Amino acid sequence: MAKTAIVTGGSRGIGAAIVKSLAADGFDVAIIYQGSVDRANALADEVAATGVKAKAYQCDVSSLKAVEEMMAAVIADFGSIDALVNNAGKTKDGLIMRMSEEDFDTIINTNLKGTFNCVKAVTPIMMKARKGTIVNISSVVGITGNAGQANYAASKAGILGLTKSAAKELASRGITVNAIAPGYVRTDMTEVLSDKVKEAILGQIPLKRCAEPEEIANVVSFLCSEKASYITGQTLSVDGGMFM
Ligand code: NAP
């Protein structure tokens, strides 16, 4: 039987690489996006041409109601949800002194609450099936903190606590929950950084380069495979050695 994966933030960057990697593994894929309708539909067409089923769904993950409606639509279209990858995320950087309440709330609501919403909505489906895999995309700065990213680092640290709590709650039902903490990855999110900031980050990476999105997607594929069946509650750093 075909397995189905949901990838949030699947329209671009790391999420798009995850969609392609899971499709190559044989998963049917539901691609969740917020605004990039053309990119999400083009990606769905691209992976569907490889022989799996793929469909794009608009959903703001910060709304539980929207997430529940999206999950119901995925179940109606695909029949099951075997893997959930919580990858949707955004940044709104600034020093704490100048950070607005709105910028703090937006990042927490998208990155942390969005992950909670998706885990909450998929839990009854996976518990009923007595199997499933959840992978949450955190960040190296959720482990180390970063000046100018209090909102983002807090959201990504929160994801690690959420991951371990969900892993403990769901293990007895055969559901694994893990996190990946990427370092510096070449996507739209990092493209906006100044050359000076990029150079400073590169100086902190023992492998002396940023990651390609595929290098994060490879680890998602592993965690969603049978080869990772005895791993739960863990954070895998995929950061070129930034944190060790
Ligand atoms: P990106 O290129 O900016 O793409 C972000 C994705 O998230 C897009 O698909 C976007 O959808 C989606 N998204 C944003 N807000 C959403 C919302 N409220 N509801 C649904 N979807 C939403 O980012 P990326 O660099 O690939 O990052 C992907 C994940 O990896 C994020 O969680 C990020 O924090 C994490 N990460 C990235 C890096 C890095 O260096 N790039 C490092 C560590 C961790 P639309 O296209 O529709 O806007």
Largest sheet: 7 strands, parallel
Strand order of the largest sheet: 3-2-1-4-5-6-7
Whole-angstrom Rg = 17 Å
What is the end-to-end distance? 40 Å
- Beta-strand content bin: 15-25%
Helicity range: 40-55%
- Give unreliable regions as ranges: none
What small molecules does this complex bind? NADP nicotinamide-adenine-dinucleotide phosphate
- How would you sum up the global shape? globular
The chain-level mean pLDDT equals 97
Regarding quaternary structure, how should these chains be classified? Answer: single chain
Order of helices and strands: EHEHEHEHEHHEHHHE
Number of helices: 9
Strand count: 7
Broad structural category: alpha/beta
Characterization of this structure:
The mean pLDDT is 97. The N and C termini lie far apart (40 Å). It contains 9 helices and 7 strands; from the N terminus they run E-H-E-H-E-H-E-H-E-H-H-E-H-H-H-E. It has helices at residues 13-24, 37-48, 64-78, 101-129, 140-144, 150-170, 188-191, 195-202, 213-223; strands spanning 4-8, 28-33, 54-58, 83-86, 132-137, 175-182, 235-238. Strands 3-2-1-4-5-6-7 form a 7-stranded parallel sheet, sandwiched between helices. By secondary structure, it is of the alpha/beta class. Helix 1 runs parallel beside helix 2 (37-48), helix 3 runs parallel beside helix 4 and helix 4 (101-129) runs parallel beside helix 6. Bound molecules: NADP nicotinamide-adenine-dinucleotide phosphate (NAP). NADP nicotinamide-adenine-dinucleotide phosphate binds next to helix 1, strand 2, helix 4 and helix 7. NADP nicotinamide-adenine-dinucleotide phosphate binds at residues 8-9, 11-15, 32-36, 59-62, 87-90, 110, 114, 137, 139, 182, 184-185, 187-190.
